[in-house]
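Appendix B, record 7
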Amino acid sequence: MQNQVIPFSKYFENWLYDKKGYYSQYKTIGKDGDFYTAVSTSSFFGGSIGKRVVDIIEEGFLGKDTTILEIGAHHGYLLADMIQFIFTLKPNLITTLQFAIIEKHEHLQNKQINYFNKCFGDRIKLLHFNDISEIKLESAFIVANEIFDAFPCELVLTNKNNCLQKAIVKNHNITFTNPTSKDEKIVHHCDKYNITKGEVAIGYENFILQLSKNIKHFEFITFDYGEKYPRNDFSCRIYQDHSVLPLFDENTHLANLYQKSDITYDVNFQHIIDIFENQGIKNIAYKTQLQALVDFGIIELLEMLHKNTDEKTYLAEANKIKTLLNPTGMGDRFKMVLFRTQ
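Structure tokens (predicted):
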């Protein structure tokens, strides 16, 4: 495959999702992995989203029998954290809500089932869907943490003659060539968002269309690294052992990193917002992670912990939450976007 000339999007997809791809095998996230996420930083990240679930059920937007659905669950930590806090806040909801994960890899499904059995025994029945196309739900609260930056993307660059070019790959070497007639959508996307250099995500439209077709009534929340508008530079990068390796750095050797490290890029949130709104799904909020978690009640949850535990435990958790909210780190660089059906 690597001796062939392929679009960068295919190279990216193979890197992460091929049989030997980075995400096709179980990977540790956190201290012993290649990167941290908000989930691996503190259970109060999931706790805050769990409180959001309780609040919107009490508000009446979703019923007590709705499905809590996670997409891109990895080990299942986030959904489990949400359940733990829902139980703390409104224990009876655990007996009426449904809990589900979309996960196509059987070995990850088994990891999630084993983790839920360890956490909850037989009190929680976890449903699995292999693909979003399998889902047929009346209502759902959908959470997806850091999934949009894992969709394949094309790389584009405007050359000195002011012509847009797209990246191709052969033997792990990236070069740029003129787009063909098949690339009309990419050219149109770059014109629409004034992109002259950077990434163009592939697959958002189909994903959001499937959601809107298969779930009638929902709230969808996602956190990811990015901005509302493109910054016209390459953000594509590789994470290995908590080191960040820019894609085009002279010390980044793709052949050595391929499928062994995580590859990602900054999300263009306006692109996501436009697609949801084209399906008649309203954008309720776009905020920094700091703003979102505070609005969801993370400080109130921390105060509850303070009243019910010793000072050492409280201070340890407070320090973890500071990492989530730090405006010079996770708190500002990660964004939350929230959607609701009409």
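Remarks on this record: The mean pLDDT is 92. Residues 43-59 form the longest helix (17 residues).
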